[in-house]
Protein 1
Amino acid sequence: QSALTQPASVSGSPGQSITISCTGTSSDVGGYNYVSWYQQHPGKAPKLMIYDVSNRPSGVSNRFSGSKSGNTASLTISGLQAEDEADYYCSSYTSSSTLKVFGGGTKLTVL
Amino acid sequence: EVQLVQSGAEVKKPGESLRISCKGSGYSFTSYWISWVRQMPGKGLEWMGRIDPSDSYTNYSPSFQGHVTISADKSISTAYLQWSSLKASDTAMYYCARRRGYMDVWGKGTTVTVSS
């Protein structure tokens, strides 16, 4: 069982917006602004999409945005495109001895 | 171009030792920590640990402490992940990634298969 909880799957049609949640505790997501999100296409390495809750690395589309409320972080993808179909993982710093935790991953299907 | 180049796929038997590598280029290798992340077949990402290449200081996830060793040779800008005695359950894809917090650059991964 992963330390951070994500929905197993979400789906949306092209052009729509979807949100993926990532729920932790006050020891990780809720306590620090160190949440990051990664996109992973099948057979590929993960790619950083959002860091420190809401910051986008250079080169990442502005259709991707991040936010946090309490112990839950969220990744929103607007204007869904077929190329967005992938697995998405959240990650957070944690004050426990584990130091860094991932969510279990969410499979995004673009209908 | 900033990149991390990982060593090739490995097929080993249980009980054998193994060291895989991750070579950084296009940036100052000693300025950024390197993390290792495991992905078992069909499963999610698991953070294993990280190393500061400037002084080889390491942190490990308790789940992996004692089972693997992370090291680095800053003279050749390379980080390593090693096992002294592999188990079938070590079969997975292993990624290295740059940075202490969020991981901004990832290697393509090294597949490790452990089978008798």
Protein 2
Amino acid sequence: GQQVMQIPQYQHVQEGEDFTTYCNSSTTLSNIQWYKQRPGGHPVFLIQLVKSGEVKKQKRLTFQFGEAKKNSSLHITATQTTDVGTYFCAGQNTDKLIFGTGTRLQVFP
Amino acid sequence: SAVISQKPSRDICQRGTSLTIQCQVDSQVTMMFWYRQQPGQSLTLIATANQGSEATYESGFVIDKFPISRPNLTFSTLTVSNMSPEDSSIYLCSVAWGSLRFFGPGTRLTVL
């Protein structure tokens, strides 16, 4: 079946450093979504990308959808302690939304 | 977006017992889902709760173990039956808003 993998699994950074997580799907996607889950919390929707090669920005966060619509990335510039959490991509194929394996980000002050 | 509440927020249960989790949404939604998130893991879809008909289960999940009710467009329940320690997880109710998913706060279940 469809699989969505993310790397790295964990990332520890010093506050102010940049961070990137990569998401790869085994199948072509109609769209990709990103969610953030704070420790002890539930996943919260961040953004959806639909078009091939699409790039969207939210303040310090930059999201990109690959040309083949099978991969995506999330880049955070100058991380802050409030960025701590697990970031999940979720790929949609027909009516199924498959969550990636997640990247846990820890930011040290 | 919808506001989603779940009850209970957490529970500790004995092996062999059953627990019913409730999910309430503040507006009518067509699609409701139940996910499981084991410790440190990603989200796995258990089933789609269909209003007025039987839930649609994903591979590896069966109705006898996870019976689901969906009596109307704002409410659903998930029962975890005959629990074992392997069922210890966070169970999340989710609704679809277009293609997006919004999640309830989750129910943290520990089975002893």
Protein 3
Amino acid sequence: QITLRESGPSLVKPTQTLTLTCTFSGFSLSSTGVNVGWIRQPPGKALEWLALIYWDDDKRYSSSLKTRLSITKDTSKNQVVLTMTNMDPVDTGTYFCAHGAGGGGVSDYWGQGIPVTVSS
Amino acid sequence: DIVMTQSPDSLPVSLGERATINCKSSQSVLSSSNNRNYLAWYQQKPGQPPKLLIYWASTRESGVPDRFSGSGSGTDFTLTISSLQAEDVAVYYCHQYYSTAWTFGQGTKVEI
């Protein structure tokens, strides 16, 4: 079965760079049509889509955050890494990674999420 | 970016009654190449990741009860829960995956 797990620091300081890793199993990110994306959710607020990487290394980013985001994949390790620079307290929230393939690539399997707090 | 606007923000519904959530996109999410709407609905309960309910605007994900249905095309979409059950209390999000940058609606909280 498909599983995804997010890992990384739970606390970062303002201006630091956040690096999150999504480790997955049950699928290959080298298979045609497959993608892995990142979505975040501030406490008590709505979901915000961040970034996506496709099996062919095509990458997509949120328009408002694209200058701060970078997404990469390591197919051999079954991992996708998201980096976000210049972290601010407003970036506090839970960060999810998700798998997509069928249905036009819609995110169908999600990790449990990792809470990240930005504070000095 | 395509802006997704849901209404209402909060929806009180009695058990067994119908719940209807609306979602409007600022641009069409209908693809002319395959005539499909790149619109999904998610359900999120506290402390859990979102759960995919509907994709292609009206296709129910495997295992989702048939009391959940989606409709609409272009820019206007609806999620209907035909007979609300206690376990349906949650926040529901519409989501477009048509444009280069995907976006979510602000969420609708369904409560009893």
